[in-house]
User: Fold these one by one.
Assistant:
Number 1:
Amino acid sequence: MTEIRNLTDLAEYAQDQIERITRMQQEMADYVGEGTSPERLVKARTGPGGQLVDLHLDPDVLRLHPQEAAAEIAAAITAAQRDYADRTNAIMEPVLAARPSEHNSDDIDAGIRRLDALTENLERLMSRHEMR
């Protein structure tokens, strides 16, 4: 951990943390999870919150029984969501010391709100310090 000896050190440390969190948020926003069904007939891409971004169906999927086709689609989407969760865990764990997929989303939202409040307070302190 960085040694903090004075307000300037605290401001620099806070700014470094803000930059790390900003990079983390951007990397997560840019990432899309990808998944393929067991028979490789369906490919899905998902983003934040498991939202479906893209779904590609091989024409051969139309030859399947409707329940089999539905299972292929569900499997591809689930695989894409798992890929996205694994990647966001890898992105967030070094910064937040937590794996978001293992926590309640309300807990994560509350943590982000606390980080936002901390950021605002630190920026206010830094601007006051610069005025002196």
Number 2:
Amino acid sequence: MTTLPHSILDGEGRLPQARARHRRERTPAGGGSGATPPTPTERPARVEPKATRAQRSRADAATLSELLSEEIDFMDHPDFHKSGAERRIYTDAADVPRPTVTWYRPMMDDIGITSPRRHEGVVLTGAQERVIFMQFNYARYRMNRIQKGLRGRAPSPEDARELLRWNRIATGYREQIAETNLALVLAMAKRVRLGEGEYADLIGEGNMALMRSVDKFDCGRGFKFSTYACRSILKAFSRHGIKIAKHKQRFPVEFDPALEQGDGVASIRAASERQDAAEVREIVESNRAALSDVEREVVMHRFAFQGLDQGRAPTLAQIGLLIGLTKERVRQIQNQALAKIRMTLEGSSSGKGSRGDRHSPSVGMN
């Protein structure tokens, strides 16, 4: 008899036959009167928090909507349509060992093609592969039957429960098959020469090809799954290599914006701005631009040449209140003063001949 994967042995995912078998195994031989450990059906039901139930209901609703959005595919087999198929496929079938995949994650963390840690691998025989693929596809077959029976109408609560139950069973067997054959992806990856930075992408492509192979493999043809999966994985690697080659043709040099931005440009710009500001201050304080008293006072107040450390520079309206003019008149006086300062600054720069082209001082206006 086969034990269903741990990921589906909960709630409605447990088959009735599995419950009966569990009760038989927990009963002492000879039917003695000794104390018998309570079976799961005899234990008090654990009260599930309301928030957990609501979260599970939303997840089930999303899963149900996804299952009903498109036709559920499966690899058909004549045994599915015979009487007692469920009992023969699940209850009477031989056990299929579940693999250990603890060795797989540490190697992926290293991102490199290295020899995996020593582990007890599970290599299924042809008969065992047939058992687990029959169980996987029969669950998908039952899901397909429920889906076709709905004929476009909304599922009843019973139909929804059955569809979700068989989906959990199929998902569990799908994961078990993939975990058993994870080493195929790594073995095929060693045949492909790529840079270490591309190895993780290569493994991802191989894993996706492996999952597609699980869905499309027909165990009734008599071939081993590894034969079919290896060809699919190598084809996926080939497509990935072609995609990388096209990308390198379009972008022969990798572009890194962080490396393109040097500190020198910002430093030179900041130093130039400080030098310009110092020269503008000197022009205003020495009145080399021949500013009038009002123009000089407006500029001194506007750009905080007076009381630079006492706070933020006043606005045009505030300066107008200080000197008894309107905001618009203060703006006009400011523009006249800046034009004189700009001409003096440009004349000074061209006279020296060493400062090159000068930009006018950057001024913020309200």
Number 3:
Amino acid sequence: MIIRVYLGPLAITFLLVLFILSMQFLWKYVDDLMGKGLEWYVLAELLFYATASFVPLALPLGILLSSIMTLGGLGENSELTPMRSAGLHLFRILQPLIVLVLVLAAGSFYFSNNVLPIANLKFKSLL
């Protein structure tokens, strides 16, 4: 149950942080890119490769913010109280969330070690 409640805020916060970091990149490089007369698909490819380098930054922020939002919402709506009164310990309630975060961390590690170097190489060659 907690995973279903968690995945929505995780996707929203991850995409929001990724969007903010991408806009920061565009703001930084807009003068250099617009003066070269590049086609739109080259700019989109450049933004795609730059956004790939923002994933390791955005994922931990998304995990943290969505965890705070999810657990705060469960506490505010008094949904944790019946679970605790039914005899479930807090660790048992959070266990699916911890497993999901560990899987996301392993995926982020794989992404950072295997995909990100290729994306950075292509980004530097386009820039």
